[in-house]
Design goal:
The chain has 303 residues and is α/β, with parallel strands linked by helices. The protein has twelve helices and eight strands. It is 50% helix and 14% strand. α5 packs parallel to α6, α8 packs parallel to α9 and α11 packs across α12.
Length: 303
């Protein structure tokens, strides 16, 4: 209920206007690593120095013109160049609607292949983020097309709150691939998604364990310490090699926990977003945890 209320308020034009005007000063900078690529690269360098890898995301989604989609593609090509030149330990994450998926699936496919091709040439990697459910099938279709040409350079996100995800996981795992498992951050109807958190949590664990059983490289993306404990129990009992999985968290959330996992010898990675179009991402972060809203309100009251 909390998540639905916050996402609903976030779509209000008045609320959006206020937060866009003051949000970076009122807490958004906690979750967004700057507005420019050089700023983000320096944040990644600092994260690497603490023994943690990164994935870099240029914030943006649902572009409304082919020109904007082209600019988004060029920003990712520049990002891969900057990663290569700086020497940071980092791959990239992207949303297909930023590349024009809402305009033309073929356009988004061409842009995605250009980015994945460059990543493959640079021995880097592209993670395709999952968006709300109307785009799930299209996203997986474009992922499969990119995988056919560049199998070592592309992976995709799967969302535990969708009923369909276990079937998607099993179908896509022949042959094994690279998946990031998340709980899901969009407002979805009960016709497609589990409404209860407990059901999402149980499906999340099933997805992670099934993904590992099927031989996939699995990114366990959660801030839930109890869930991390359950995953660790499973990988120890099943003797899953540590090079078959990693733990991932978002920039600005539970970093000390991720750092502790890194010190224990587990692969770890931070999702590092940057850019001017930070509002939708920030609203989803507030909606995920009441503590994030409290942080925003506390910062507001202190100004």
């Amino acid at each position: 209920m909390f998540r639905e209320v916050v996402l609903g308020l976030g779509s209000n034009p008045v609320v959006e206007g206020v937060i866009k005007r003051y949000g970076m000063q009122l807490g958004a900078s906690r979750f967004v690593a700057g507005r420019t690529l050089p700023e983000a690269i320096e944040e990644v360098r600092a994260i690497n120095q603490r023994g943690i890898k990164a994935t870099l995301d240029h914030l943006g989604e649902s572009v409304t013109s082919e020109r904007a989609a082209m600019e988004a593609k060029e920003s990712y090509l520049a990002m891969l160049d900057a990663i290569g030149q700086s020497g940071v330990d980092c791959n990239v994450s992207l949303k297909l609607t930023m590349l024009g998926l809402a305009l033309d699936e073929g356009l988004a496919a061409r842009h995605l292949l250009d980015i994945v091709e460059k990543a493959a040439q640079m021995h880097n990697f592209v993670r395709i983020d999952m968006e709300d459910s109307p785009y799930t099938t299209k996203t997986l279709t474009l992922f499969e097309k990119a995988y056919q040409q560049y199998p070592d350079a592309v992976g995709v996100v799967l969302q535990a709150y969708l009923y369909r995800t276990m079937d998607d996981l099993k179908r896509l795992s022949q042959p094994p691939k690279n998946f990031r498992i998340v709980k899901g951050a969009y407002m979805e109807p009960v016709s497609v998604a589990f409404p209860a958190k407990a059901d999402v949590d149980e499906n999340y664990l099933r997805l992670v364990t099934t993904s590992l059983e099927l031989g996939n490289y699995t990114a366990v993306a959660t801030h839930d310490e109890q869930m991390i404990g359950r995953v660790l129990k499973y990988v120890h009992e099943a003797a899953v090699p540590r090079d078959r999985f990693e733990f991932q968290m978002l920039y600005g959330v539970r970093f000390s926990l991720l750092e502790s996992l890194a010190r224990q010898g587990y692969r770890t990675r931070v999702y590092v977003p940057y850019g001017e179009d930070w509002y939708p991402y920030y609203i989803r972060r507030i909606a995920e945890r009441p503590q994030n809203l409290l942080f925003f309100m506390k910062t507001l009251m202190e100004r």
